[in-house]
Design goal:
With about 100 residues, this protein is mainly α. Helix content is about 80%, strand content about 0%. It has helices at about 1-5, 20-55, 60-95. It is elongated. The mean pLDDT is about 90.
Length: about 100
């Protein structure tokens, strides 16, 4: 009896709820801000790396490299997060 009740429950995304459109716009705006900040971080980190390299300051050059890699990773994640989430939503929907 309980097994048949669990098997009949289905959940589907509902985009007609009040505020859904506003929330989607807010999330899109946050994604844009994150990408802008990642670009700014990459530019600043590249500058720190260049100054550290030219002034023979290995610590600053290494910190610049770390910041540059982190900024690039943040931009990749921010750009791909929608596709990643959609992939797992569609994969989860296929589990029966």
């Amino acid at each position: 009896m309980i097994t048949s009740l669990i098997a009949t429950v289905t959940v589907t995304p509902n985009q007609s709820l009040p505020g859904t459109h506003t929330l989607l716009n807010l999330i899109g705006g946050l994604d844009t801000i994150v990408i802008f900040l990642a670009v700014a971080g990459a530019l600043i980190s590249a500058g720190v790396m260049a100054v550290g390299s030219h002034s023979n300051n290995g610590r600053a050059a290494d910190r610049g490299k770390t910041g540059l890699i982190a900024s690039i990773a943040a931009a990749i994640i921010a750009g791909a997060v929608s596709a990643i989430i959609n992939f797992f939503v569609s994969t989860g929907g296929k589990i029966h």
